[in-house]
Design a protein that fits this description.
The chain has 173 residues and is an alpha/beta fold. 46% of the residues lie in helices and 10% in strands. The chain has helices at residues 2-23, 56-77, 96-101, 103-108, 116-128, 162-172, and strands at 29-33, 84-89, 139-141, 144-146.
Length: 173
Protein backbone atom coordinates (compact mmCIF):
# COMPACT_ATOMS: atom_id res chain seq x y z
CA UNK A 1 0.00 0.00 0.00
CA UNK A 2 2.93 2.34 0.67
CA UNK A 3 3.93 2.21 -3.01
CA UNK A 4 0.34 2.74 -4.17
CA UNK A 5 -0.14 5.87 -2.06
CA UNK A 6 3.31 7.46 -2.04
CA UNK A 7 4.52 6.66 -5.55
CA UNK A 8 1.82 5.48 -7.93
CA UNK A 9 -0.85 7.78 -6.48
CA UNK A 10 1.44 10.80 -6.49
CA UNK A 11 2.62 10.09 -10.02
CA UNK A 12 -0.84 9.35 -11.46
CA UNK A 13 -2.54 12.34 -9.88
CA UNK A 14 0.20 14.73 -10.97
CA UNK A 15 0.34 13.44 -14.53
CA UNK A 16 -3.46 13.48 -14.91
CA UNK A 17 -3.70 17.03 -13.55
CA UNK A 18 -1.06 18.49 -15.90
CA UNK A 19 -3.60 19.87 -18.42
CA UNK A 20 -5.43 21.70 -15.61
CA UNK A 21 -2.19 22.93 -14.10
CA UNK A 22 -1.10 24.35 -17.46
CA UNK A 23 -4.31 26.38 -17.55
CA UNK A 24 -3.59 27.66 -14.03
CA UNK A 25 -0.24 29.22 -14.81
CA UNK A 26 1.54 31.42 -13.86
CA UNK A 27 0.82 30.25 -10.30
CA UNK A 28 0.48 26.52 -11.01
CA UNK A 29 2.56 24.37 -8.72
CA UNK A 30 2.81 20.84 -7.39
CA UNK A 31 4.09 20.38 -3.84
CA UNK A 32 4.91 16.85 -2.76
CA UNK A 33 5.40 16.02 0.91
CA UNK A 34 8.34 13.64 1.16
CA UNK A 35 10.47 12.88 4.20
CA UNK A 36 14.04 13.17 5.39
CA UNK A 37 13.82 9.39 5.60
CA UNK A 38 14.69 9.45 1.91
CA UNK A 39 18.28 10.32 2.83
CA UNK A 40 18.76 6.69 3.86
CA UNK A 41 17.69 5.12 0.57
CA UNK A 42 19.05 5.27 -2.96
CA UNK A 43 16.65 5.19 -5.87
CA UNK A 44 15.81 1.64 -6.91
CA UNK A 45 13.69 0.11 -9.64
CA UNK A 46 12.42 -2.47 -7.11
CA UNK A 47 9.41 -0.28 -6.41
CA UNK A 48 7.36 -2.84 -4.52
CA UNK A 49 10.20 -4.44 -2.51
CA UNK A 50 10.05 -7.75 -4.37
CA UNK A 51 13.60 -8.79 -3.48
CA UNK A 52 15.14 -9.13 -0.05
CA UNK A 53 13.46 -9.18 3.33
CA UNK A 54 10.69 -6.59 3.47
CA UNK A 55 11.16 -3.59 5.76
CA UNK A 56 8.32 -1.10 6.03
CA UNK A 57 10.70 1.65 7.14
CA UNK A 58 13.02 1.01 4.18
CA UNK A 59 10.08 0.85 1.75
CA UNK A 60 8.85 4.20 3.05
CA UNK A 61 12.33 5.72 2.60
CA UNK A 62 12.58 4.30 -0.94
CA UNK A 63 9.18 5.73 -1.85
CA UNK A 64 10.11 9.14 -0.51
CA UNK A 65 13.35 9.02 -2.55
CA UNK A 66 11.23 8.29 -5.65
CA UNK A 67 9.10 11.37 -4.89
CA UNK A 68 12.23 13.55 -4.79
CA UNK A 69 13.50 12.13 -8.09
CA UNK A 70 10.05 12.48 -9.72
CA UNK A 71 9.92 16.13 -8.68
CA UNK A 72 13.28 16.73 -10.36
CA UNK A 73 12.05 14.91 -13.47
CA UNK A 74 8.81 16.87 -13.66
CA UNK A 75 10.65 20.19 -13.25
CA UNK A 76 12.98 19.21 -16.10
CA UNK A 77 10.26 17.78 -18.35
CA UNK A 78 7.59 20.44 -17.83
CA UNK A 79 9.76 23.46 -17.05
CA UNK A 80 8.49 25.29 -20.12
CA UNK A 81 4.82 24.80 -19.16
CA UNK A 82 4.80 27.39 -16.35
CA UNK A 83 4.30 24.81 -13.58
CA UNK A 84 6.54 24.78 -10.51
CA UNK A 85 7.40 21.42 -8.91
CA UNK A 86 8.61 21.30 -5.32
CA UNK A 87 9.16 18.57 -2.74
CA UNK A 88 9.57 19.10 0.98
CA UNK A 89 10.39 17.44 4.29
CA UNK A 90 8.02 18.47 7.11
CA UNK A 91 10.50 17.55 9.84
CA UNK A 92 9.95 14.78 12.33
CA UNK A 93 6.42 15.27 13.58
CA UNK A 94 4.50 13.48 16.30
CA UNK A 95 2.08 11.62 14.04
CA UNK A 96 0.40 8.23 14.39
CA UNK A 97 2.58 6.98 11.51
CA UNK A 98 5.81 7.85 13.31
CA UNK A 99 4.52 6.35 16.58
CA UNK A 100 3.54 3.10 14.82
CA UNK A 101 6.49 2.74 12.42
CA UNK A 102 9.26 3.97 14.69
CA UNK A 103 8.03 3.32 18.24
CA UNK A 104 11.42 3.57 19.97
CA UNK A 105 12.28 6.75 18.03
CA UNK A 106 8.88 8.21 18.89
CA UNK A 107 9.30 7.34 22.57
CA UNK A 108 12.89 8.69 22.72
CA UNK A 109 11.86 12.02 21.24
CA UNK A 110 8.50 12.36 22.98
CA UNK A 111 7.79 16.04 23.53
CA UNK A 112 10.55 17.06 21.09
CA UNK A 113 8.89 16.17 17.79
CA UNK A 114 7.06 18.78 15.77
CA UNK A 115 3.32 19.23 15.87
CA UNK A 116 1.29 18.64 12.72
CA UNK A 117 0.96 22.41 12.37
CA UNK A 118 4.73 22.88 12.55
CA UNK A 119 5.18 20.11 10.00
CA UNK A 120 2.76 21.87 7.64
CA UNK A 121 4.58 25.21 7.80
CA UNK A 122 6.91 24.74 4.83
CA UNK A 123 4.27 23.25 2.54
CA UNK A 124 2.05 26.30 3.18
CA UNK A 125 5.03 28.60 2.70
CA UNK A 126 5.81 26.91 -0.65
CA UNK A 127 2.20 27.40 -1.76
CA UNK A 128 2.30 31.12 -0.98
CA UNK A 129 5.79 32.14 -2.15
CA UNK A 130 6.20 33.85 -5.52
CA UNK A 131 7.53 31.15 -7.86
CA UNK A 132 10.45 33.40 -8.84
CA UNK A 133 11.85 32.93 -5.31
CA UNK A 134 11.73 29.13 -5.51
CA UNK A 135 13.72 26.51 -7.40
CA UNK A 136 11.50 24.16 -9.40
CA UNK A 137 12.64 20.62 -8.70
CA UNK A 138 14.03 21.74 -5.34
CA UNK A 139 13.81 19.94 -2.01
CA UNK A 140 12.77 22.21 0.86
CA UNK A 141 12.99 22.01 4.64
CA UNK A 142 12.19 24.79 7.12
CA UNK A 143 11.40 27.32 4.39
CA UNK A 144 14.72 26.86 2.62
CA UNK A 145 16.11 24.71 -0.15
CA UNK A 146 17.93 21.73 1.34
CA UNK A 147 20.33 19.16 -0.14
CA UNK A 148 18.74 16.09 -1.70
CA UNK A 149 21.72 13.90 -0.93
CA UNK A 150 24.05 13.50 2.02
CA UNK A 151 27.77 13.67 1.18
CA UNK A 152 28.46 9.97 1.79
CA UNK A 153 24.90 8.72 1.30
CA UNK A 154 25.48 7.01 -2.07
CA UNK A 155 22.14 8.27 -3.37
CA UNK A 156 23.07 10.88 -5.99
CA UNK A 157 24.05 8.55 -8.83
CA UNK A 158 20.95 6.44 -8.21
CA UNK A 159 18.74 9.17 -9.70
CA UNK A 160 19.78 7.90 -13.15
CA UNK A 161 17.14 5.18 -12.62
CA UNK A 162 14.24 7.65 -12.77
CA UNK A 163 13.51 7.12 -16.48
CA UNK A 164 13.09 3.39 -15.93
CA UNK A 165 10.87 4.09 -12.93
CA UNK A 166 8.70 6.47 -14.97
CA UNK A 167 8.31 3.79 -17.64
CA UNK A 168 7.15 1.34 -14.96
CA UNK A 169 4.71 3.86 -13.51
CA UNK A 170 3.31 4.60 -16.97
CA UNK A 171 2.63 0.88 -17.41
CA UNK A 172 0.16 1.09 -14.49
CA UNK A 173 -1.81 3.96 -16.06
Amino acid sequence: MNFAVNVLGTYSMTELMLPLLEKSQPDARVITVASGGMYTAPLTTDLQFMSGEFSGVEQYARNKRVQVALTEKWAEKYGDKGIGFYVMHPGWAATPGVATSLPSFSKSFEGKLRTSEEGADTVIWLALQPKEKLVSGGFYFDRAEAPKHLPLGATKSSHAAIDSIVDTLNSFM
